[in-house]
Amino acid sequence: MESNLEFIKTISNTIKNFENSVSVAVQNIDIKDLPTFTQSEDTATYIGRNLTVEMDKEIVISAKETKIDEKIVIAVNKFQLPDVASVALIGDSLTSNSGGMNLDTFVVSPHVSITIHKENTRKQFSSGVSIQFTVMKPMDLIRNNISGGLGETNVISFYYTCVFIDTSKGKYSTKGCTSKFTKDGVLCNCNHTTVFAVLFSVKYNIVPAAVKIVTFVCEAISIFCLLLTILILTHLRKHIRGDRTMVQINLSISLLLLHLFTIVHDAAIQNDFTCRAEAVLIHYFLLSSATWMMLEGVTLFVKTTDKSLEYANLDARKVNATRLIIGWGVPFIVVATTASISFYYKIYMNSNPPDHGTTYRTCWLSSQIILYSVVIPVAIILTINSVMLIKVAHFVCKMTSEMKNFQVSAKQQSESPVNINEITATMKALFTLFPILGIPWVISLLVGIGDKSTVISLMFVNAVVNGLQGLLLFLLFCLNATEVRKLLITRWKRGPLQQHRSISSQSATATTTTA
């Protein structure tokens, strides 16, 4: 605290000394000799009578709020402050590191002390000023000042701020000043004269390299497992009883494409068209995956109601056609409508500044779109599944209790439209399916909450749990499903035997033909 006060005292003295020296110079200088310009290693001083002052083509100052017939003298002193002094003036309000989100602020212009004097009286007076600072481009500033080390730096937002040194508080202040970023730099309009500068603030987060590696590995495992799941269920579909296989295949296809497009994100972002396509496709397959999950829950729910017999007698083709329309069609309508309107108004994705190198920050939706077109629909689906989960759980508990008092024959059980064994098995599947598809999305929303260590931990958890959805579905639909597992074992055992018989038969046929 004492060091900060020392900095402020030094700065205050510098400003007062400059103003005093300018006042003396203005009192004694001959107007005919203006403008004058002196420069040393740390400072550059200009005194002139024009309303507009240009210093080194880096700073342009214009006086405002003066009478037309009133001649004035502008004195400008440009100087650099030590970094430690600037840090002290910035303080903690413009820097933070919470929730895994970093906010860094630093000075990007020289400090400029401005005084204005009336020509006739040579006395100083307060006047509004307009200052045009030439500053580095945003991405150059970010590259020069922000380092993610081995990780990936994701810039969330950035902005310039015109400030002055408030010596009474020992901090930079924006009171009386407005900021505007233009193609020529930063334009500051202030209603007073004092010491001005431009700050640059950037909000960003850093994804550790290890998180990127874990994400890639988990996504690759999911893609392989989902592809294997689709092949197995498609091959055994005709031999599996029940109608859930069709839903499981489509759910696996949707998740496969979701993970496939996710894993190629870093390649897609290099091109504007592929990045836009990537964002739309990830949006679509995310919603379609959630919709197919809901259809899985609806199928189980209907089988536990008094409408189960009517459902069992429905035309399977019409039921499957309805599922296809809902599972693929409804998300298509939502995404197509959202993308069309949002791209028209240029709010579908977050754009980078012109000098970044890539047009978009990520191949994903902007924060103002994601709430209405992703979070709300998925939240509704998860709520529906939660209700159905409770209903199905209540039904299974009730039927299990009744089975203790009333034994049903094997024939009666197999003929009953409400098969207890099937409901129990599918109930286990729903309990497993719900966290597989629900928890990863909830975790992804939690990333960014808490301190830095918590955020990094959530990044790893999200990368593993969300990335391994394909593996979990393979375990659930193929290895944990008793009927599918038995069919796989049977096919595996019969395969070599059938191949041996086929070879023997071919040999016998060849022998007979030769004879």
Task: Write the topology of this structure.
Elements: H1 2-28, E1 36-39, E2 43-48, E3 52-55, E4 59-63, E5 72-79, H2 83-90, E6 96-98, E7 101-107, E8 111-118, E9 124-125, E10 129-133, H3 138-145, E11 152-166, E12 171-173, E13 177-182, E14 185-190, E15 195-207, H4 209-236, H5 244-263, H6 265-268, H7 272-302, H8 308-312, H9 316-344, E16 349-351, E17 360-365, H10 367-405, H11 410-415, H12 420-446, H13 452-467, H14 469-479, H15 482-514
Antiparallel strand pairs: 1-2, 2-5, 3-4, 4-10, 5-8, 6-7, 7-15, 8-9, 8-15, 10-14, 11-12, 11-15, 13-14, 16-17
Tell me about the largest β-sheet.
10 strands, antiparallel
Measure the end-to-end span. Answer: 108 Å
Structural class comes to: alpha+beta
Count of DSSP H/I helices = 15
Which percent band covers the strand fraction? 15-25%
Overall number of structural domains: 2
Which spans of ≥5 residues are poorly predicted at pLDDT below 50?
A: 408-417, 499-515
Write down how many β-strands occur, each being a DSSP E stretch of 2 or more residues: 17
Backbone shape = elongated
Tell me the CATH superfamily of the largest domain: Rhodopsin 7-helix transmembrane proteins
The CATH top-level class label of the largest domain: Mainly Alpha
The average pLDDT is 78
Q: Predict the CATH topology of the largest domain.
A: Rhopdopsin 7-helix transmembrane proteins
CATH architecture of the largest domain: Up-down Bundle
Helical content (DSSP H or I, runs of 4+): 55-70%
Radius of gyration: 35 Å
